[in-house]
């Protein structure tokens, strides 16, 4: 298992070692001890999610209030997606930047998204299926979104006409979320994860 830190501090791409033969494939797609060693604290597993999307669907950019936030370990178990991490932490040196990672059923990579970062993806195939391990359970009052097509973010979604949920289509821009005080603080996120 190889870990590569993304250009956004705290986020990682994880590439597992694949063991295949004529019978099929085996891989360790998640190891709590290896992840904790790399990120500096264990990922508390509180909820598992499965998301299935049609080609061209864009979901996100979603984030949660910190504390407690919601760290995510995401992998694609069927099809392919462009998984996107956005730095929404006010005061971060990379605030407003994004990075995309191809997640698919071939390489079986995963992405670790720590508390305070935004997460979204675009389905590149029909029935693209993502599995999420989450550090906290879903809390509707503490969950938020930034509009995924906000030109200030400039995310290069690989879809001619991205399909959005009503919630994502109505989400504020990054500037609106910042002005309203909705976004997490970089310092608060760092303090919170340091205490885990």
Which secondary-structure class do the elements indicate?
mainly beta
Q: How many strands appear in the DSSP assignment?
A: 13
Assembly status? single chain
Mean pLDDT across every amino acid position? 97
The low-pLDDT segments are none
Query: Approximately how much helix is present in the residues?
Result: 10-25%
Largest sheet: 6 strands, antiparallel
What global shape is seen? Answer: globular
Counting DSSP H or I runs of 4 or more residues, the number of helices is 4
Alpha-carbon distance between the termini?
Answer: 23 Å
As a percent range, the share of strand residues is: 35-45%
Order of helices and strands: EEEEHEEEEEEEEEHHH
The largest beta-sheet arranges its strands as 1-2-10-7-12-5
Radius of gyration: 16 Å
Name some characteristics of this structure:
single chain, 196 residues, mainly beta, six-stranded antiparallel sheet, five-stranded antiparallel sheet, 14% helix, 37% strand
How do the strands and helices of this protein lay out in sequence?
Elements: E1 2-5, E2 12-15, E3 18-21, E4 24-27, H1 32-39, E5 47-53, E6 58-64, E7 72-78, E8 80-87, E9 98-104, E10 110-113, E11 117-123, E12 128-134, E13 143-145, H2 166-169, H3 174-179, H4 186-194
Antiparallel strand pairs: 1-2, 2-10, 3-4, 5-12, 6-11, 6-13, 7-10, 7-12, 8-9, 8-11
Report on this model:
- By secondary structure, this protein is mainly beta.
- 14% of the residues lie in helices and 37% in strands.
- The chain has helices at residues 32-39, 166-169, 174-179, 186-194, and strands at 2-5, 12-15, 18-21, 24-27, 47-53, 58-64, 72-78, 80-87, 98-104, 110-113, 117-123, 128-134, 143-145.
- Strand 3 and strand 4 form a beta hairpin.
- It is globular, with a radius of gyration of 16 Å.
């Amino acid at each position: 298992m190889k870990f590569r830190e993304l250009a956004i501090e705290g986020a990682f791409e994880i590439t597992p070692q694949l063991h295949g033969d004529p019978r099929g494939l085996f891989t360790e797609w998640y190891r709590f001890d290896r992840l904790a060693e790399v990120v500096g604290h264990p990922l508390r597993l509180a909820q598992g999610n499965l998301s299935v999307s049609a080609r061209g669907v864009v979901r996100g950019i979603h984030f949660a209030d910190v504390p407690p936030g919601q760290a995510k370990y995401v992998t694609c178990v069927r099809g392919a997606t462009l998984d996107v991490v956005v730095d929404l932490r006010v005061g971060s040196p990379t605030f407003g930047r994004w990075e995309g990672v191809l997640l698919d059923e071939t390489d079986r990579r995963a992405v670790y998204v720590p508390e305070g970062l935004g997460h979204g993806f675009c389905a590149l195939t029909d029935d693209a299926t993502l599995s999420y391990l989450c550090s906290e359970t879903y809390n509707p009052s503490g969950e938020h979104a930034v509009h995924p097509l906000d030109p200030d973010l400039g995310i290069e979604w690989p879809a001619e006409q991205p399909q959005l949920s009503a919630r994502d289509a109505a989400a504020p821009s990054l500037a609106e979320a910042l002005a309203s005080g909705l976004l997490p603080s970089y310092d608060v996120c760092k303090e919170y994860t340091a205490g885990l």
